[in-house]
C-alpha cells in the first residue's frame, strides 16, 4: 500500500472571473497576481501566467482575447505586455497604476 501524499493547496482564494468591467480590473489583477505569486513553481513562465489569466476571462473580455489566440500573438508569452494591453483596452487610467 502506497502512503497517501497530500497535494499542496494554494492558500489564496481562487480568483474571480473578469468580464471586462473596467472598475473590476484592478481587483482582478491583484487577485490573479497574488494567486500566482504564492505558487511560483506552477506559474514559472510568462506564457503560463497569461494562460491562467485567460482562463479567468468571460464575456467581452474573453471575446477580446480570442483574436490574440488565433494569431498566436507574442503577447501570450509576455505577462507584463498582456497586462498593459488589458489596461489599455479596458480603460485603466495610468495614474491608477500600482
Task: Spell out the key features of this protein.
DUF4939 domain-containing protein; 98 residues; DUF4939
Notes on the structure:
It comes from Gulo gulo (Wolverine). InterPro entries: DUF4939 (IPR032549). It holds the Pfam family DUF4939. Residues 2-98 form the DUF4939 domain. This is DUF4939 domain-containing protein. The longest helix is centred in the first third of the chain and has 14 residues, at 25-38. This protein has one domain (22-91). 48% of the residues lie in helices and 0% in strands. It has four helices and no strands. It has helices spanning 25-38, 46-55, 59-70, 79-89. The chain is mostly helical and 98 residues long.
Low-confidence stretches: none
**Rounded average pLDDT:** 90
β-strand amount: under 5%
Order of helices and strands: HHHH
- Computed over alpha carbons, the radius of gyration is 15 Å
Largest sheet: none
Amino-to-carboxy terminus distance: 51 Å
Q: Please indicate the count of domains.
A: 1
Number of helices, counting only DSSP H or I runs of 4 residues or more: 4
Tell me, briefly, the overall form: globular
DSSP helix fraction:
40-55%
How many β-strand runs? 0
The chain-level structural class is: mainly alpha
Amino acid at each position: 500500500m502506497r502512503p497517501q501524499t497530500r497535494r499542496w493547496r494554494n492558500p489564496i482564494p481562487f480568483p474571480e472571473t473578469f468580464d471586462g468591467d473596467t472598475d473590476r480590473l484592478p481587483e482582478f489583477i491583484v487577485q490573479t497576481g497574488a494567486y500566482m505569486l504564492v505558487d511560483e513553481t506552477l506559474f514559472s513562465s510568462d506564457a503560463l501566467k497569461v494562460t491562467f489569466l485567460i482562463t479567468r476571462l468571460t464575456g467581452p473580455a474573453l471575446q477580446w482575447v480570442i483574436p490574440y489566440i488565433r494569431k498566436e500573438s507574442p503577447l501570450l508569452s509576455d505577462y507584463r505586455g498582456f497586462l498593459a494591453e488589458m489596461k489599455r483596452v479596458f480603460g485603466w487610467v495610468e495614474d491608477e497604476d500600482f
